[in-house]
Amino acid sequence: MKVSAERIPEGQVVLQIEVEPERLEGALDSAYRRLVKKTQVPGFRPGKAPRAMLERYLGEHALLHDAIDRLLPQVYREAVEEQQLDPIDFPEVEIVTEQPLVLKATVPLRPTVDLGDYQGLRVPRDPVTVEPERVQEQLERLGQRYATLEPVQRPLQWGDIVRADVFGAVGETVLVDEKDVEFRLSEGEVISLPGFAERLIGAEEGAELRFELTVPPDSGDPRLAGESCSYRVVIHGVKEEKLPELDDDFARQVGEGFPTLVALRERIASDLQRIEEEVGERRYHDQIISALLARAELDYPPVLVEREVDRLLQEQAGPAQQGRDLERYLQRVGKSEEELRAELRPPAEERVRRSLVLSQVAEAENIMVGGAEVEAEVERLVAGAGEQADEARRLFASEQGRDALRRSLLTRKTLERLVDIASAGEAEGASSTLKE
User: Fold this and answer.
1) Model confidence pTM above 0.90
2) C-alpha angle 128/131/133, rounded to 5°?
3) I want to staple 207 with a disulfide (CB 3.0 to 4.6 A). Which of 84, 203, 294, 373 is the partner?
């Protein structure tokens, strides 16, 4: 058997395999012995038809294709061993010629990652600050949660709560028919159809309004687009939102109670600072990985991206994404499978690239996760699961669940190490300042 190998981009090798005629003939003879036993050739007892008669009865290529099907895995395996390749998935195989038998196999290889001088990676950290305006905004939002609604006798204004009967129809098609329904008139928010809320502004309790609105193209039913919807609205009541005074008395009502408004502001500022620090840390991780990817050289086969596309598709369509389930999901989003896969390919490639560099850093830094660490993380997660504690414990009792947890811990430890490396300049600068 003659084998030649050509390295091509994207982590693949093309093998050209030429099978010697004697080996193909032996495979043909084996195919004859297999097929003749289970084929009833007219005029012959089972298993007794000569090879020429069997070929004529089944077709001249039947034995050849059966022989190639049996021979192909064997010769491919031998060629991979001869070339000392490390495939990560099945190859794409093309039959160049049948006689002589020449095969071409495109083999996806294990990725290679060159991190470059990752130890010299330095990424400045953006300062995390919470502006006083954000604290005030959060305080006002908190005040809205303690607002009261009071009936008023005046024309409707933006922000009011309306209680009304609403009926709307396009010809015989009813779009809305609700009695005594309450809704807020919020400026810029669409209710029923664009322009509906605007028609109510200025109306008073007891009013009966009749008006028409045009159904826009994005209404959800293209058959109604451009049609006129006739509304009848009877207003039964109007309420106004009364906000509390933001003072010490208000602070004492909030949560566990705060002695003063200043104390409440400090808690809000502290909570916002913590949230911003968490968001900033995730952003810093992304910046580090982006900087790492910018200096790394990666070579990996397309099959890794396609596997990740499959995972993303499963995340979107649900765990049972085959057959009708996938078809229903595609109908719901209004896309073909090819269109959806094309959309998912860029984020899938980004996931693959991030995973490859993080795995390489973990290997280079000898970062590992022991069984005790996994057990401790299981206990931590179960303790925080509340009523779902038993379900969480069952999830992590499976090998699949523990493996996912182990990967998560490995990623976390690797990112922590990368933060140490990337922020080393800040620590060095602080040390230098202290010496001065």
Assistant:
1) no
2) 155
3) 203
